[in-house]
Amino acid sequence: MTVAETTQRAPVRAGWAGVLLALGGPALIVLAAYFTPSGLDPLVRRAVIWIGFSVLSAVLLLGPERSRLSELGLGRPKWSSLGWGLLLTVAFFAVGAASYACILALGLPAPTAAFAGLAALPFWARAVTVLVAAVCEEVLFRGYAVTRVRGLTGSPVLAFLIPAAAFTALHLPGWGPAHLLFVAPGAALLTLWFQWRRDLWGNILAHFLVDAIPFLIAPLFLPA
Length: 224
What we know:
The protein has 9 helices and no strands. By secondary structure, the chain is mainly α. It has one domain (3-221). Helix 1 runs antiparallel to helix 2 and helix 8 packs antiparallel against helix 9 (200-217). The radius of gyration is 18 Å and the shape is globular.
């Protein structure tokens, strides 16, 4: 193999390494949730790990892959990102309402324990959880994974299926199988939307609002 061929293959190897990091790393975070580290709040620890995986993906992108953050849809934010993000939020809630109607119609148990556990956290902990999930999950599962899988395979179908399936499976341990009927359509919507718009800021805003409305905003108007 010539030096030129080795140089050309380096970004490809780094790209697949990044995909494995983006999709497999969060699974380790889920496993870490079952352990209680000493001297550090488990919630803070998971948030630090999420941020760490996102930063590592960015390092791979800017270093061995010789790319730019704009390739992940993280160019300069535009006012259109706000509008598209709000529209995506409405679409997500519409899909979510239909999904939960299916859950009720099938008689499946809703993930009330998981919702109650998150709702019981103090406000700052819920805010950290929602913000980290919105930013890091969109960077890893949409911006990075979708972009890299499509670039490495040339297939928009694989770029949709692989990240969406990984994102959906990630929610199984903590939320249960019934919740996947909600997560899977949401993952499909977020992934297709990103492939269409290539604007990750809109995805991040929508993801944040979808989680913030039930866990941060709505509790402010409920009786104590």
